Amino acid sequence: MCRLIERRAREIGQPVKIMNFCGTHEWTTVHYGLRSLLPPEVRLIAGPGCPVCITPASCVDAAVRAAMEGKVVYTYGDAFRLMGGGRPPSPPGGRAGGGGAGGGRS
């Protein structure tokens, strides 16, 4: 696989930059030393973090307040597990106003 990546990178004819935006993926990259396996033409860049990982608690609090006021809030499924800073009461079952994940109210 490493040889294939190296060959393809050289065919491109310029440095290849791949952004890794997930914290778990970055941990795996570092833990297993994957950067050391890549050819010099390929650079794996640690990105800003996934939207769930970098969401401030204040945004979670605002979204929960909006949901509790009956507003429809759309988010990533993983964000249902986030806790806000003020830890307001969570909507029952991670849903607001009877809506489902990504489905809004019916």
Describe this structure in words.
The protein has 106 residues and is an alpha+beta fold. It folds into 2 domains: 2-46, no CATH class; 57-93, no CATH class. Helix content is 30%, strand content 9%. Strands 1-2 form a two-stranded parallel ribbon. Helix 2 links the parallel strand 1 (16-20) and strand 2 (42-46).
Question: How would you sum up this structure in a few lines?
Answer:
The chain has 106 residues and is α+β, with helices and mostly antiparallel strands.
Stretches with pLDDT under 50, minimum 5 residues? 95-106
In helices, the fraction of residues equals 25-40%
Domain module count: 2
Strand order of the largest sheet: 1-2
Distance between the termini: 48 Å
Mean pLDDT: 79
Tell me the β content.
5-15%
Count the helices. How many? 3
Helix/strand structural class: alpha+beta
Main pleated sheet: 2 strands, parallel
Q: What is the helix/strand order? A: HEHEH
**SS elements, strand count:** 2
What's the overall geometry?
Answer: elongated
Q: Radius of gyration over alpha carbons?
A: 20 Å
Layout of secondary structure:
Elements: H1 2-12, E1 16-20, H2 23-31, E2 42-46, H3 57-68
Parallel strand pairs: 1-2
Supply the key terms.
alpha+beta, 3 helices, two-stranded parallel sheet, 106 residues, single chain
